[in-house]
Design a protein that fits this description.
Elements lengths: L1 H15 L6 E10 L4 E11 L2 E7 L10 E4 L4 E4 L1 E6 L22 H10 L1 H10 L2 E6 L4 H6 L11 E4 L3 E3 L15 E3 L3 H11 L6 E5 L9 H21 L3 E5 L3 H9 L4 E2 L10 H10 L2 E2 L5 H9 L7 H6 L2 H6 L9 H12 L1 H23 L21 H10 L4 H7 L2 H5 L18 E4 L13 E6 L2 E3 L9 H14 L2 H5 L2 E9 L3 E5 L1 H14 L4 E10 L2 E10 L2 E12 L2 E8 L1
Parallel strand pairs: 1-4, 1-5, 6-7, 7-8, 9-10, 9-11, 11-12, 12-13, 13-14, 18-23
Antiparallel strand pairs: 1-2, 2-3, 5-15, 15-16, 16-17, 18-19, 20-21, 21-22, 22-23
Helix pairs in contact: 5-6, 6-7
Length: 580
Amino acid sequence: MKTRLFLTFISLISFSFSLFSQTYITNVTIVDVEEQRLIPHQTIGIKNGLIIAIQHDKKTIIPDNANVINGNGKYVVPGLTDAHIHFFQNGGLYARPDAIDLRNEMPYHKEINLSHQNMDNVLRRYLQNGITNVIDVGSSVNFLKRRKSFKDKEYSPSIYMTGPLLTTYEPAVYKDLKDDKPFSLVKTVDDGIKMVQEQLPYHPDFIKIWYIASRDGMEIEASARKNLPIIKAIIEEAHKNKLKVAVHATERTTAQLAVENGCDFLVHSIEDEILKDDFVQLLKRNKTIICPTLIVQDGYVKTFGQKLDFSNDELLKSDPYQLGSLLDLKHVSDTLLVNRYKKSASSKKNVARFRKSDSIKMINLKILSDADVLIATGTDAGNIGTLHASSYLAELKAMQKSGMSTWQIIRASTINGAKILNKENEFGTVSIGKKANLVMLNENPIENIENITTIYRVINKGAIFNPAKLIEDTPSDLAQRQLNAYNLRNIDAFLEPYAEDVEVYTYPDTLRYKGKETMRKRYSKMFEVAVGLHCELKERIVQGNIVIDKERVTFKDKVVETVAIYHIENNKISKVYFID
């Protein structure tokens, strides 16, 4: 009772100084993730990037000079956290040369350079999807240096980051990358201590261990125990320097050894066996947080098996070029390699193995969530097929499929993400004194988890953003989006970049047809009957609002080369000219 009176008193004090508030969100429903309830008819006061007041709408007096957002019919959730991403990976086909070596198609230094060039765009995409906090659980020294430049950018989510992964196994393709290396090979206890100390000058938020067993030819148990002194030394050195430790451990053995020796954060599901109660209780006693990353394996399998499918939301909000690259296996020059990967991904043996590990992950997540083990939402974005920001909803839906309730998923995506780094007093709930990192939704996310994408406004560091304007489509973006949807035979996503009255010509001036509905009829029929349909972009020229694509279209055993000229007006493709 005393606490409630105190909070009411603080709220009244806050509103008595409302003259100085910058922003009010009025008559909105707050999604209370701690008490698991909806609180309607609330007004939220924001000043200097903080929530300064929350009060019933009828009791609020708003000064004339305040910035007011009408929240009628809308819902406010805390800004979301993606607790597992990698900036050094782009999410496209060329992101992991240790998984599929296509360096002849895309030299890896170009891929690394692209990841640096795209960081601004990637951050904008996260915010566009309501994600106001990202945790990079395996980065590089160069990215540790770069994050400082985004600290005061209002469009940038808050970035929490480790340096290179400390590991007893390092893929050969990542050697000799200097400050761009994502891995540091640890051979001895002294190496582990030294490599923690080497990261300290760059102020990482935590330390990450890649606990890989059996790559040395030994059985998992023996391999894990052989390397345990190194793992233990890294954890102890990190804790000595007041840094938490995240561990990649996908086997029950490696996960248990890591937790028993002080690991704070498990960044994947255990996928080799169903968890028993002694392990569950160990996690609870140690207050270890686990990030299940359910969808990342599927991204690889669907890409290598050439069975990709994306929702309309993903096709709209993904980086169109990285998404498009996932379809490149249809035309890369090394057909023997491609066929080998496709065959492997589709083999009965591997399909059964993938299904088994997926089933185990789902069962284990249900066991853990029912036991109130702390679960945090993370995608492992940046890996092949798991695109930055836009993959978040797929992860939420997978968590729901495991049996987690909507409230549990929302908590995992907000307050539990804050708890990873002891930031729960700074963000993760809609509360007085916390950061004004908020997402306004048009629909109730508790009724349907997909409503988390119905974003009206995002408030980050106190600044208000219309998500549609966070990233301005370029003419090239529009051309690429329709190309991606064409190759995926998604008629709605294909038509989305086009104007309602689009005109399609045979060059130079013969009108073929006009209007999006006519286009729908023509392409819908083709998408239904086409066998082996694929369009390869050979070359693109952009001149102002005109995009010229040289394309090679495969249909059955027929190959046609053509040129398409796209004219863009008012952010839509208004005219198309084909040169056959």
